[in-house]
Write a structure and sequence with these properties.
Layout: E1 2-6, H1 15-19, E2 23-26, E3 31-34, E4 38-41, E5 44-48, H2 54-63, E6 69-72
Antiparallel strand pairs: 1-5, 1-6, 2-3, 4-5
């Protein structure tokens, strides 16, 4: 499973931070950061989700009010 985070879409509500420790508040930019991620396109960050964090990642994606977080399974199918 991997997560894609569109930081440009993020509005800095930080609900994801409460759900998954991989998301961190960046008060200077008014947006969240995804720790351990790689920027694949401008403002699109991707990282693998450890098995023990899959539920937390799913909650983070579901709580994002602007759908800036998407989860994909190992076959590339969007889950959330």
């Amino acid at each position: 499973m991997h997560v894609e985070f569109d930081r440009d879409t993020c509005i800095g509500m930080y609900q994801c931070v409460e759900e998954w420790a991989a998301f961190e508040e960046n008060r200077n930019d008014g947006k969240a950061d995804l720790a351990g991620s790689e920027e694949t396109d401008p403002d699109l960050f991707v990282r693998e989700v450890p098995e023990d964090a899959e539920l937390d990642a799913e909650f983070a994606a579901r709580t994002c009010p602007v759908d800036a977080i998407e989860l994909y399974d190992d076959d590339g199918e969007r889950m959330v």
